[in-house]
Amino acid sequence: MSACGCHAAKTDLRPVDEAIAELLKQVPLPPKPERVPLAQALGRTLALPIHAASAMPAWDNSAMDGYALRAADLPAGEGWLPLAGRIAAGDAALAELPAGTAVRIFTGAPLPPGADTVVPQELARVKDDGVWLASVPAGANVRRQGEEFAAGSRVLDAGIRLRPLEIGLLASLGCAEVTVYRPLRVGLLSSGNELREPGQALAPGQIYNANRYSLEGVLRSLGLDVLDGGILVDELAASRDSLSLAACEADVLITSGGVSVGAEDHLKQAVRELGELHLWRLAIQPGKPLAFGSVCGKPWIGLPGNPAAALITALVVARPFLLRAQGRNEVLARPLRLPAAFDWTRGNPRRQYLRARLESPGGHLQVVLHPDQGSAMLASACWADGLALIECERTLMRGELVDFLPFADLLG
Q1: What pLDDT sits at residue 264?
Q2: Which of 89, 104, 135, 227 has a beta carbon 3.0–4.6 Å from 108's, enabling a disulfide?
Q3: Strands 66-69 and 298-303: what pairing?
Q4: Residues 6+ positions from 98 with CB-CB distance below 8 Å
């Protein structure tokens, strides 16, 4: 058991990994699949596996510009051969290659029957109707039929996000359309009378609603549709009405703020009246209060209100739930293990997710912390490349390995 798990067992703090596992048990079925043109499938989650209708490559072809021949026909491994033709990409292969000859061939062009090797053009000298060819290993520079995959083989599994790489592969298979899950609709609401939208004038005690924009950005980066539910005022009936309205349109609800012990936080009571409420105190910093339950039959996650805490718990805790609800298989980010450029001399009962960046003085990559790690501070997140993860009660010295979660991996 990890140090975090051991310590959390002695307190009322729930270990982060345990909370994520519990959330994943509650994930609903993904949205219905739909068929879309391949050009519109980027970032979508594949709903059905893809099998190859034919072998790839479909026939033996040349891996470069050069000359195709039978390796056994080249005298003493190198020498002159007469030219018997020319094959460009897009041409049909010639008839059987005449014994003792070579053909000019270009990248991607089919090898004529009988040819088994391609000599690159830079290792050849052409004169009249013949060509001098240097020695290359038999079978060199040939892409064999079915080398990438055989006909009928599984090419892509369901549950993956379609990146440009997969889109290109699908195009190479001739897929004009693909079956993907409809994007998950997430209702996003912010709790607090003190919140105002950017552009509005601020009265004393009021702040701009940063969470709406940072969390919406996180959700859209995950390929989800966001339904803006606005600001939940600190009044029970109004909170209840806003939540029930959002639940009618969304697949999942996300709120920020209103899940602590504050007397003016009516969000929790509104959730109780509309569904089910679980309040968790997580062994995580920044963050600690997190809520989970349902509103009118729709899953609901309540994030902390402080901007950095809301951002980090969204990336660490809510992200796996949302990706699985979208139909994704792999939902947990894999940290890098890199040397720390700092000392951490005081263990903490909560797992730390510290805003950090990667630097490479002297060519050696290391993890550098931002000096300001407050739960309300977003500037440090903008400076950072990701999050350094330090387990509960752990101390470490400069140069020891620390887990690092790049934002590039968490935002997708």
Answers
A1: 57
A2: 89
A3: unpaired
A4: 84
